Amino acid sequence: MGGGSVVRRLIGPSLMTAAMLLVLLGLGTWQVRRLAWKEAILAQIAQAEAAPPVPLPPSDTEPPPFTKVAVTGTLTHDKSALFGADVRDMPAGPDLGAFLIEPLQRAGAPPLLIERGWVPVKRTTPVAMPQGEVTIAGYVHQADTPGLFAAHDDIVGRHFYTLDPAAIGAALGLDRVAPFVLIALGPPPAPGAPMALPTPAEHLPRPPNNHLQYAITWYGLAAALVVIFAIWARKAVRT
To answer: φ, ψ for residue 206 (rounded to 5)?
Structure first.
């Protein structure tokens, strides 16, 4: 086969391969940049966890993202609700539970719903009920809206599946509540110690960080494309 014929045969596939290679390399580079951005956010979260909580503004304005806040008031234990459903491993085996929500009465501000932590639906261990004024550290969770396939709230049973403070507050007989929920934070239980109820969250929420795997995937596909094209081009030149 003549040299000109070989070149003409390679032009089309070469251009297509080059275009695909640029796309794959661009996607990989974009994921590398996303990785740096995500790692900066995770470092900010770790710094916020290590720092002491900041007071929650009395006007109930939303604090900056990834902020640990503290609020003082009195918990109203007789106005409680459950949120969600979560199965956890207990000494006797898997146990179905939910997250305990109680209003915190505050001076000069509307009640604030506190998600105190996980409790079994069927309890054999008493739930801690601190009396008097308490200070709770946690992070703010904005109100959710029910999704298309969300479970229906059991208003009579006070078991909710959408974290909507207005709806939960109304079911608890509260005329007005803060527009968000505070997720309580607490230390992890000591090894071998019995589980305390409720079991609060241990960390600020962290976004997933899969960008390194994605970058490796895109760059790997780019490398595979080059190898496949080189093998094909070699055969094309010889035939």
So the answer is: -120, 130
Same domain as 133, residue 169: yes
113 Cβ contact list (under 8 Å, min separation 6)? 101, 102, 103, 104, 165, 168, 169, 177, 178, 181, 182
Whole-angstrom distance, CA of residue 168 vs CA of residue 188: 28
C-beta of residue 114 within 8 angstroms of C-beta of residue 100: no
Residue 113 domain boundaries: 67-184
8 A C-beta contact, residue 168 and residue 101: yes
pLDDT in tens, 156-208: 999 999 999 999 999 999 989 999 999 999 887 777 667 788 999 999 988 89
Q: State whether 108 and 26 are in the same domain.
A: no
Q: Whole-model pTM?
A: 0.80
191 within domain boundaries:
no
**In-domain check, residue 60:** no
Around Cβ 212, how many Cβ atoms within 10 Å? 14
Question: Please, which pLDDT band fits residue 116 given cuts at 50, 70 and 90?
Answer: very high
Per-residue model confidence as pLDDT tens digits over 124-153:
788 989 999 999 999 999 888 877 777 889
Q: Are residues 147 and 218 in the same domain?
A: no
- Mean pLDDT of all residues belonging to the chain: 89
Tell whether 104 and 178 lie within a shared domain.
yes
Residue 148 domain flag: yes
